[in-house]
Design a protein that fits this description.
seven-stranded mixed beta sheet, five-stranded parallel beta sheet, 20 strands, globular
Length: 192
């Protein structure tokens, strides 16, 4: 039985060493792609969409990612139709990040899958692991929100600006704050 590579361990969500040569090479490819993508902010939408398809795991029709954009590898990011990421989003994609159709993500949002051992002796060995993030369809995530490792957000949920989402969010729920909690206030938007 052959030993798993560090990349295989990473993709499974097992403890792995991030400075592995194969992972460093993948990160260098992503970094070069990010430099090209972020420099092409004035390019036509169709060209930028095609560029997303060069690096991301899946890019649905009409998916838009505004520059600057940052990620670890890109290949673990899956965007369904009509997903919109505004300026300055960061996606640490050591494992899968899946974003459902029609979801809108505000500027400066961070979606994080990378996690670290709680035991300091294990953490001192420079080991880390990932926990996937799943975001349903028609979700609205306000500016500057943080989505932490392992979180699942249900369809039609709203994440208030600046919220720190540490736990799963049920479909149709609005959460706000740090840590994010279900909002008990009614919808302040009378146009809804």
């Amino acid at each position: 039985m052959s030993m798993a590579t560090e990349k295989q361990k990473m993709l499974r969500g097992d403890l792995y060493t991030a400075d592995d040569p194969q992972l460093a090479a993948d990160a260098a490819v992503a970094s070069a792609w990010l430099a090209r993508y972020n420099a092409a902010s004035a390019a036509p939408a169709s060209e930028r969409h095609a560029m997303l398809g060069d690096a991301l795991g899946h890019v649905g029709n009409g998916a838009t990612v505004r520059s600057p954009f940052h990620c670890d590898y890109g290949y673990n990011i899956h965007l369904e139709d009509g997903v919109f990421l505004n300026f300055g989003c960061i996606v640490l994609d050591v494992v899968s990040v899946r974003i459902g159709a029609g979801t809108q993500i505000g500027p400066g949002v961070q979606i994080l899958t990378a996690d670290h051992p709680r035991d300091p002796a294990v953490r001192a060995k420079a080991l880390e692991f990932g926990r996937p993030v799943g975001i349903g369809g028609n979700v609205w995530i306000g500016a500057g929100a943080l989505i932490l490792p392992g979180v699942t957000i249900g369809d039609d949920a709203i994440i208030g600006a600046g919220s720190v989402v540490t736990r799963d969010v049920a479909a149709g729920t609005t959460v706000v704050g740090n840590p994010a909690r279900v909002s008990t206030k009614g919808n302040p938007d009378s146009r809804a």
